[in-house]
Structure formats: structure tokens, C-alpha cells
Write a structure and sequence with these properties.
The protein has about 160 residues and is an alpha/beta fold. It has a single domain (about 1-150), classed as Alpha/beta knot, CATH 3.40.1280. It has 5 helices and 5 strands, in the order βαβαβαβαβα. Helix 3 crosses helix 5.
């Protein structure tokens, strides 16, 4: 199963890029994983929040395929403990999911039609994170989930 983290824009913070790269290298031992960046929306400052959501939605549709399983990362989504997230991943693998795509919305969240589509939503925290921090928190938790599934000593419980 391939796993994608799809995020708006890029990050200029070297320490975040370095941290994410370190975890990507570790995750690759378990499954193909990549962070995919939506291109910055042109003239974003002149758009309304709804227009910006629509542009991000159109970009997301171009990046994903019909059979990709999409999970929206949203503070109002289901919160998992790390062990529960590992179980979620295992269930996706057992179900034969070919591509699992986690999408972190932009500063105004998701387009209404994306929310209405009924995709599962997952929360990394009740707190709001920048899309830059989401990259680091998510990749660490994904690595942790794989070490849990493999019975490795990274996670202590």
C-alpha cells in the first residue's frame, strides 16, 4: 500500500524539511510514502476563502486517482491513539487499499463538496497546526504506527 500526505504549498523551514526527510527515510522501510505539495494558488490574496478552498479542491482532484482512499486531516475528525492509528493502517492494508492519501486542508479548511463527499476525517489534535507542522507530526506518527505493527521498540506502552 502506498501512502501519500498531501499538503498545500511548501515549507521554507529547514528544520521541518530535515525532520520530515528523516522520517520519510525510516517509513520507506515499511511502505512507499511521499509528501505531495499542492502548488501555491495564484493570486490567493485576492480570493475569498471559498474560492481558495475550491482551487485547492481542484488541485487535489488532479493529484488523486478514482480508487485512492482519501482521509481528510481535520481537527474535528476522529482522534486516534498511536496504537489505534496503527490498527487503522493495518485494516487498510488488510482491505487491499492500494493508495491511502491523507489530505491536510489549507488555511480555510476543505471545500464544502469535499466535506460533503463523506470521506473519513482524522484529527492529529484538537489544536490547529500549520500545514508545515502537520507534515512533521504526521510523518512521525506514521513511522510510529509502522513500528507498532512490527513490534519494534520505538513506541512504549
Amino acid at each position: 500500500m502506498r501512502i501519500d500526505l498531501i499538503v498545500p504549498g511548501s515549507t521554507g523551514e529547514r528544520w521541518i524539511r530535515d525532520g520530515v526527510s528523516a522520517y520519510i527515510g525510516r517509513i520507506q522501510h515499511y511502505a512507499p510514502f511521499r509528501v505531495r505539495e499542492l502548488p501555491a494558488v495564484k493570486n490567493a490574496a485576492s480570493l475569498t476563502p471559498l474560492q481558495l478552498q475550491q482551487e485547492e479542491y481542484l488541485q487535489l482532484k488532479k493529484l488523486t486517482k478514482e480508487f485512492d482512499r482519501l482521509v481528510l486531516l481535520d481537527e474535528s475528525g476522529t482522534q486516534f491513539r498511536s496504537v489505534e492509528f496503527a490498527d487503522f493502517l493495518q485494516k487498510q492494508m488488510n482491505a487491499g487499499t492500494r493508495a491511502l492519501c491523507f489530505f491536510a486542508g489549507g488555511p480555510y479548511g476543505f471545500a464544502p463538496e469535499l466535506r460533503a463527499a463523506g470521506y473519513p476525517m482524522m484529527s492529529l489534535s484538537k489544536m490547529t497546526f500549520t500545514h508545515q507542522m502537520v507534515r512533521l507530526v504526521f510523518t512521525e506518527q506514521l513511522y510510529r504506527a509502522f513500528t507498532i505493527l512490527k513490534g519494534e521498540g520505538y513506541h512504549h506502552e
